[in-house]
Amino acid sequence: MAAAVAVLLSGCVADGLDDLSKSAPQLSSKTIAEMKKKKMSPASPVLVRIFKQESELEVWKVDASGQYALFKTYPMCRWSGKLGPKMTNGDRQAPEGFYHVSAGMLNPNSQYYASFNLGYPNRLESALGYTGDALMVHGACSSSGCYAMTDQGVGEIYAIVQKALAGGQERFQVQAYPFRMTADNMALHKDDPNLPFWRTLKQGYDAFEFTRRQPKVSVCGRRYVFNTEFEGGEPTDPLAACPPAMSTADPNLMAKLDAENKKVEIAMSSVKSSAVFAYVDGGMHPSFRALLKKNGANKMAASISGIKYPVSRPDAALADPYAGPSIWKPAAKPEDSTSDR
Question: Where are stretches of biased composition, namely Basic and acidic residues (predicted)?
Answer without folding.
Answer: 332-341
